[in-house]
Amino acid sequence: MDQYASYYYIIAGAVLLLISLFFNRLAERTRIPSVLMLIGIGLGIQVTVKYFGLYVPDLSQILQVLGIIGLILIVLEAALELELKAEKTGMILRSFTSALIGLVVCALLIGALFYYLFDFSFAYSLMYAIPLSILSSAIIIPSVHHSAHRVKEFMVYESAFSDILGIIFFYFYIDSLEINSAVSIVFGISTKILLTILVSFVVGYAICYLFPRVESSKIKFFPLVALLLIIYAIGKITGISSLLIIMVVGLMLNNVHLFLFDWFEQFIDFRQFNIGLIYFKSFVLETAFLVRTYFFVVFGMTIDLQLLGSWQVYAITLAILGIIYGSRWLSLKVSRTSNVAKKVFIAPRGLITILLFLSIPAKYVQTNFNQGVLLTTILATCIIMMIALMIEGNKHKTAAETPAEEEAVGGDLLSLEIEENV
Q1: Half-sphere exposure of 311 (CA within 13 A, CB side)
Q2: Of residues 352, 377, 341, 381, the one with CA closest to residue 288
Q3: How large is the average pLDDT for residues 4-20?
Q4: Chain-centroid distance, C-alpha 353
Q5: Distance (Å, rounded) from C-alpha 365 to C-alpha 125?
Q6: Over 70: is that where the pLDDT of 361 sits?
Q7: Distances (CA, A) of 308 to 9, 207, 379
Q8: Which of 163, 116, 154 lies closest to 136, judged by CA?
Q9: For the chain, how big is the Rg over CA atoms in Å?
Q10: If you count Cβ atoms within 10 Å of the first and of the last residue's Cβ in the chain, which end, N or C, has fewer?
């Protein structure tokens, strides 16, 4: 039996990918986020394994590796979604403002809640609050696929900004905990930001130079992703914000015409570059799909179901939900965006939230924090978004957008067109 074990693993892994693809298609029709179904598979595997008394190795290291790769791909994928065009300036500013205000207000309020409920300092409370304050673009982008164009486009930008800002804030905040004085924190973070920006543009221009040359080779995009993984790892070792570098690279690739000087344009074949970019976006989306599939299934397998047996978990989750949707309503109002009622409940937490919780250094982990709050918040926000999108879908069946509205909105983002093929 053991001699065939490797083949069983191969079959299981391939079947999971096919099931995940089916879940994506099912999510488009039913509005049920595929992440819920993948976590459900993981929980089912966990229960089955325990029932039959089968041996399961420690999956924490696998989950961490998948998390790091997923983090890089999510930031790159989000940056590749952002098109910096003059006609979109207003929408970009509104989505950025909404993401920033929502992140800050939500983090401060949830931090205050944790400080009141748990026996640890506000500094640690805020550290635990930041991951729960970030929108999940990995869930939002495919979920709003059939929403109105304006809602869809705004949500793509806002969730991408929320991912990027939240991840960068989290890691800068973790670094600041190592520094004692406020002056040292400001100086240290400012220096690190300036150094990171400088390195980011150097790496960005190098990638833009290499991109059409790599694209023309037989092995196209894995070398490029391997280079980004190396840059990320070196950045973490040297203390530079690696994710900011990944973000800048993605922005420069997707908006190369805005960053090139006259003397540099002679090295770029724009036609070849743009063709390669389309395929590279598809490659990143498919790779991110692969990593997300295995991550959520493994996450479901590692969930401690005993953590969900306490009524305090659900009471805390209700308070967190109140903060999430209250701060979201405020951020949408302050940013002066339209269709607030359609957007306010599109606020799922997902992969980024889990990844950042896993990234909390061991010396800062608070043992009296109930991890069940993390799972219930993710599940609740996904279910609420699902219900909101179902209600919106029913309304669209009875009242479609007028031709004038369609013309005013314009076409879909290129990234959303590619998403259909993932």
Answers
A1: 0
A2: 352
A3: 88
A4: 8
A5: 11
A6: yes
A7: 30, 46, 12
A8: 163
A9: 22
A10: N
Q: What is the pTM (predicted TM-score) of this model? A: 0.80
Q: For residues 75 and 167, is the Cβ–Cβ distance under 8 A? A: yes
- Residue in the structure block whose two tokens are 């929108």: 135
| Tokens linked to 273 | 């570059």
Residue bearing tokens 């250094």: 361
Whole-angstrom distance, CA of residue 18 vs CA of residue 421: 14
Calpha distance 330→225 (Å, rounded): 38
175, two tokens: 């670094």
Q: Is the pLDDT of residue 14 over 80?
A: yes
Closest-CA residue to 413 (of 254, 301, 286): 254
256 neighbors 209 (Cβ within 8 angstroms): no
Cβ–Cβ under 8 Å, residues 134 and 352: yes
* The two three-digit tokens of residue 372, written as one number: 């069940």
For 339: left if phi > 0, alpha if psi spans -120 to 50, otherwise beta; the answer is: left
Please report where in the chains the tokens 């420069």 appear, as a residue.
Answer: 252
Tens-place pLDDT, residues 215-269: 556 777 888 888 888 888 888 777 677 777 888 888 888 888 888 776 666 777 7
CB distance 54 to 132 below 8 Å? no
Torsion sign over Cα 254, 255, 257, 263: negative
Q: Do 75 and 250 touch, CB atoms closer than 8 A? A: yes
Token duo for residue 55: 């041996």
CA-based nearest residue to 377, from 31, 50, 88, 134: 134
Return the closest-CA partner of residue 393 out of 150, 145, 33, 156.
145
